[in-house]
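Final report, closing paragraph on structural work. Over the funding period we assembled a curated collection of sequence-structure pairs, and we close with a single example.
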Amino acid sequence: MIGRRAWHDLRRSCRRRWPIPAARHVPCPAPGIGGPPAWGGGAKPGRSSPLAAAAFRSSGLGARFEDFCGLKPRGFSSDALRDVPVAGMVDVPLAQTGEGIAECELLKWFVQEGDLIEEFQPLCEVQSDKATIEITSRYKGKVARINHVAGDIVKVGETLLKMAVEEPHLLMEACDRLENVNSPTSEMIKSKKCGVLSTPTVRGLAKEYGIDITDVHGTGTDGRVLKEDVLRYAADKRIMEGSSASLGTDHEDQFLGGAQTHQNVSAKSGWHYNDETIPLRGFQRAMVKSMSMAAKVPHFHYVEEINCDALVELKASFQDNNTDPDVKHTFLPLLIKALSMALSKYPIMNSCFNEELFEVILKGSHNIGIAMATPNGLVVPNIKNVQSLSILEITKELSRLQQFALTNKLNPEDISGGTITLSNIGAIGGRFGSPLLNLPEVAIIAIGRIQKAPQFADDGDVYPVSIMTVNVGADHRVLDGATVARFCNEWKRYVEKPELLILQMR
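Its predicted structure, as stored:
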């Protein structure tokens, strides 16, 4: 009873000192600055609101209450309130950018700290394993703090930046989330990543060693990560070797996040040579994962040579009669269309394998992927529904994908949903290649350069022929050599006699 009376007396005294209209939403006070408690605004007389509790503690009234009745009320942590400034702060996290995407590389920022932001304004550009995406703002406000720099790998759900917004209800929601935080005597806070409990000191130690604290198994109360847990994890990962001498002096040199250089000196010449460590990002990281998985699949390859004399003449005819300056005719659209015709007869080549269920899914659409080398790495966009497109439509779509790939503007739809892949190594050079599967597809085809080669006629005469070497890589869990050979013969027939395409085209 004494404590309850003291509480009401203090509330009445506070109301006389700092009258606040009930219709206003009052923001939480900054930590360490005294101010009026934010009662009113709909708070019930018998129960303090979160804003009132925050003001009560920050204004020093909590100490008076403790001295009076010997009790310690449970309220806000001043450490937690640092993230709730007067304007009302919201976190802008990295949202889920696609199915199965767990992290993205931050490519660049479109804003800076202090910039005023409108709704739906682009904030930054990120790149996942599949595409490049712009992150836009859901709020109107001001950029308070940017948490990452270009080149960082950001996990889905991590905070990209903090914004001071104008809507007061967002501040109320932020304070409600802090209602159950312990008092300042407890340094325990909950990490925003996966709910890991740790103190700022422990998190700082983990950061020094370059450790993601969510990977560390906590042995403290409620799974709290202790200092000993971080040190044990570091020792297990063998990143503690040689660190004792430099610990506390310059951790940045020991655990450099970007490119590193190490100087080697030649004993004979005295020249200095520098090694460079380049982090893999974006499409290059995706290639590491996909090729590592593909290497575990049993492959076999089928090699064939195709006479392209008729194809060369047809392509030259298309170019001579071209009236659109934006269209450039090449061999590839003709090969893609002929491939689609062959897939219609052998649909097993246009399938995907579900390893868990031991099922083969025959794909109805011919979404033919084209491997492209870009400044950002290898990417495989695909042309959708080739069976329904004309050669001219394929040419235009291929040109669009090539331009978007070079400028890193491909969207997730361009990259997902492929059913079979063509790798045109002949565009760069080379006659032969042994490609690895683009899982879960069951076939991939490498196309070599078209070159003149001597051929013998039936009477023994020698004549020049335009020859293209193709190498079909196949998943031997699904396909056998006879099926691939028959399919390749069908494709070869359409390439060597492109007039047959007219009979089948709708």
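The CA atoms of residues 330 and 501 lie 17 Å apart. The mean pLDDT is 74. We thank the funder for supporting this effort.
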